[in-house]
Q: What sequence folds into this?
C-alpha cells in the first residue's frame, strides 16, 4: 500500500506547492461570479419561494469549484507527466493500476474539497448559510469530486496534447457544469430544458449538494444519490479497465 | 541462482512495424552486459518490455526469476532503469524526488542511502535545489540516482552518456563500475562503441528486432576484427605488388589486416627492400566499431 500512499502524497504536494494557482485562483473566480450575479439578480429572484438568490448561488458555486478543480487536478497532472515524460517514474515502480487510480482520484477529490471549502469560507460573508444536513453536503461533494477526478484520469490518459485536453474541458466539462443548475433552479427553465437537464449527471450532484444546505431540492436527494453513485461506479469501472489494459500508458 | 535477465522469444509489433521479432537473451547475475544496435533496432523497446512500460505480444521476460507481467511487483523491485530521455518533475527538489521515488517502492526511511547516492554522484550540494534549476548533466545524474533508490540488483542504463560531457561520463562510469564490482548486474545500451568495448564483458547486437550477435566482447573482437597496419606513403612512393594485393586504400592511407605481431616485421622488410618510403605508420587494435559494422552488414557466426 505504500506505493499508493506516496503517489497520493505526491499528487497533493504537487498542487499544494502551486496553491496560488490551484487553490487561491479558483476561489477568486468563484467570488467574482458571486459578486456579479448576486448584484444583478439578488433583488429579482427568490428561489424555492424563500431562499435569496445569493444564498442559493453559494452552494452552486462551491460545488462547481469542487467539480472543476477535481477534474483539473488529475487531468493536468497526468497530461503534464505524459508530455514531459516523467510519468515513467510512476510506471516503473511496483504500483498496481488500482493504487494508481485511487491515488490520482483521491488527490483530485482532496483538491476539489480544499477549493470548495475555500469558496465556502470566502462567500460566508455575503450570505448567511443554513446547514440542513451536512451529510448530504459531504456525500455529494465527495462523489462529485470522485466522478470528475475519474473523468480527469480518462481525459489525461486519452489526450496526447494540451489542446485535446482543453477541448475535453471546454466542450464537455464546462457546458455540463454551467448548464447543471449552478446559477438557477431548473424549475425556472422552460419544460423542454428542464427535461434536458435531467440527462445531465452534474445536475444531480449540485441538486443533492444544495439539499444539504436548504433542505429543499428539485428532485429527491435519494434519486440524485442513486444516479450520482451509479455514474461514479461506471466511471470507476471504465477507468480501471483502461488502466488495467495499459491504454496509452504502457504502449 | 536465477539469471539476472531471461528474455524468451519476445515479440512486439507497433502497428505494421515489428520492433522485436522473437528475441532470446540471458544475462547472468553480476555481468556487465552491452545491448548494441542501430537506431530502431529494438533496444529501447526491449528495455521498455522488461521494465513493464510496454506489453509484449509474445514471449516471456524474467528479472531475477520474477516474471515481469505475472509477478510485476517483485520484478520491478529487482530492476532500476535509467531512461534515455532527460525527464524530471519540475515541482520537486532533488531530495524530494528521491524520497518520493523511494516511497513508490515502499521504502519510507531511506535518507542514509539517498545521502550516499547523492555523495557518489556528486549531487550533495544540489540536494535541495529544484529540479528545474539543474543543468542537463545534473539532471542525468538525478535519473541515475532515482534508478538506485531501491537498491536494485539489476540496473539498466539506456544510453546514459548521450550528450554528456567527458567529466561526467568518467564519474558516471566509475560509479557504475563500482556498483558492478559490488555485485549489481549492469545492462547498458550506448552508441559509443568504445565505451561498450571497455566496459561490457558480454555484448548482444540487435538488428531489426533480432539478436544478430551474442558473445563475450573478447570473442567478438577476435572473430570480427583484427589488428591493422596503417601506412601513409611518402609522395611518389608506391607499394610493392605483393603487399598492395592485400591492402585497402582509404583517404590516402593503406590498411593491412593481420592476426599476429610476427607478421609485421616481414611486411616492413619487404617495403624497405622495395625502397618504399613511408610518411606515417600506425598499428590499430581490433575494435568494436569494426565488429559492429561487419555484423550489421550481415556477417554472422557470432551466434552462440
A:
Amino acid at each position: 500500500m505504500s506505493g499508493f500512499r506516496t503517489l497520493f502524497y505526491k499528487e497533493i504536494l504537487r498542487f499544494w506547492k502551486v496553491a496560488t494557482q490551484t487553490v487561491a485562483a479558483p476561489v477568486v473566480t468563484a467570488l467574482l461570479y458571486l459578486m456579479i450575479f448576486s448584484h444583478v439578480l439578488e433583488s429579482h429572484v427568490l428561489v424555492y419561494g424563500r431562499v435569496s438568490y445569493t444564498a442559493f448561488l453559494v452552494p452552486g458555486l462551491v460545488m462547481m469549484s469542487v467539480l472543476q478543480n477535481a477534474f483539473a487536478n488529475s487531468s493536468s497532472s497526468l497530461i503534464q507527466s505524459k508530455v514531459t515524460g516523467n510519468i515513467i517514474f510512476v510506471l516503473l515502480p511496483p504500483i498496481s493500476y488500482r493504487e494508481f487510480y485511487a491515488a490520482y482520484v483521491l488527490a483530485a477529490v482532496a483538491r476539489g474539497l480544499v477549493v470548495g471549502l475555500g469558496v465556502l469560507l470566502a462567500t460566508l460573508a455575503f450570505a448567511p448559510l443554513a446547514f440542513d444536513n451536512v451529510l448530504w453536503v459531504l456525500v455529494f461533494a465527495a462523489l462529485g469530486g470522485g466522478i470528475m477526478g475519474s473523468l480527469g484520469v480518462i481525459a489525461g490518459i486519452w489526450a496526447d496534447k494540451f489542446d485535446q485536453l482543453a477541448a475535453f474541458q471546454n466542450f464537455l466539462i464546462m457546458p455540463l457544469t454551467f448548464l447543471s443548475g449552478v446559477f438557477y433552479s431548473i424549475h425556472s427553465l422552460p419544460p423542454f430544458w428542464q427535461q434536458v437537464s435531467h440527462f445531465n449527471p452534474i445536475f444531480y450532484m449540485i441538486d443533492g449538494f444544495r439539499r444539504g444546505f436548504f433542505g429543499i431540492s428539485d428532485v429527491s436527494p435519494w434519486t440524485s444519490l442513486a444516479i450520482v453513485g451509479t455514474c461514479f461506479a461506471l466511471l470507476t469501472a471504465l477507468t480501471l479497465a483502461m488502466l488495467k489494459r495499459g491504454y496509452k500508458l504502457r504502449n | 541462482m536465477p539469471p539476472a535477465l531471461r528474455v524468451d522469444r519476445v515479440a512486439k509489433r507497433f502497428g505494421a512495424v515489428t520492433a522485436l521479432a522473437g528475441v532470446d537473451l540471458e544475462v547472468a547475475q553480476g555481468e556487465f552486459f552491452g545491448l548494441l544496435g542501430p537506431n530502431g533496432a529494438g533496444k529501447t523497446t526491449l528495455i521498455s518490455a522488461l521494465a513493464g512500460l510496454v506489453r509484449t505480444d509474445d514471449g516471456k521476460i524474467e528479472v531475477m526469476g520474477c516474471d515481469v507481467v505475472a509477478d510485476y511487483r517483485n520484478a520491478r523491485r529487482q530492476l532500476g532503469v535509467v531512461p534515455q530521455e532527460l525527464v524530471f518533475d519540475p515541482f520537486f527538489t532533488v531530495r524530494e524526488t528521491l524520497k518520493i521515488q523511494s516511497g513508490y517502492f515502499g521504502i519510507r526511511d531511506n535518507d542514509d542511502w539517498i545521502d550516499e547516492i547523492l555523495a557518489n554522484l556528486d549531487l550533495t550540494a544540489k540536494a535541495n535545489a529544484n529540479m528545474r534549476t539543474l543543468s542537463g548533466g545534473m539532471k542525468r545524474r538525478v535519473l541515475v540516482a532515482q534508478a538506485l533508490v531501491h537498491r536494485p540488483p539489476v540496473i539498466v542504463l539506456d544510453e546514459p552518456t548521450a550528450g554528456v560531457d567527458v567529466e561526467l561520463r568518467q564519474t558516471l562510469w566509475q560509479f557504475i563500475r563500482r556498483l558492478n564490482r559490488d555485485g549489481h548486474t549492469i545492462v547498458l545500451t550506448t552508441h559509443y562503441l568504445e565505451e561498450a568495448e571497455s566496459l561490457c564483458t558480454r555484448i548482444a547486437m540487435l538488428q531489426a528486432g533480432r539478436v544478430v550477435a551474442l558473445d563475450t566482447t573478447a570473442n567478438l573482437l577476435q572473430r570480427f576484427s583484427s589488428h591493422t597496419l596503417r601506412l601513409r606513403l611518402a609522395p611518389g612512393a608506391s607499394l610493392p605488388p605483393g603487399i598492395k594485393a592485400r591492402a585497402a586504400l582509404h583517404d590516402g592511407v593503406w590498411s593491412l589486416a593481420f592476426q599476429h605481431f610476427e607478421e609485421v616485421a616481414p611486411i616492413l622488410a619487404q617495403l624497405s627492400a622495395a625502397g618504399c618510403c613511408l610518411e606515417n605508420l600506425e598499428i590499430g587494435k581490433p575494435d568494436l566499431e569494426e565488429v559492429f559494422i561487419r555484423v550489421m552488414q550481415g556477417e554472422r557466426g557470432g551466434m552462440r
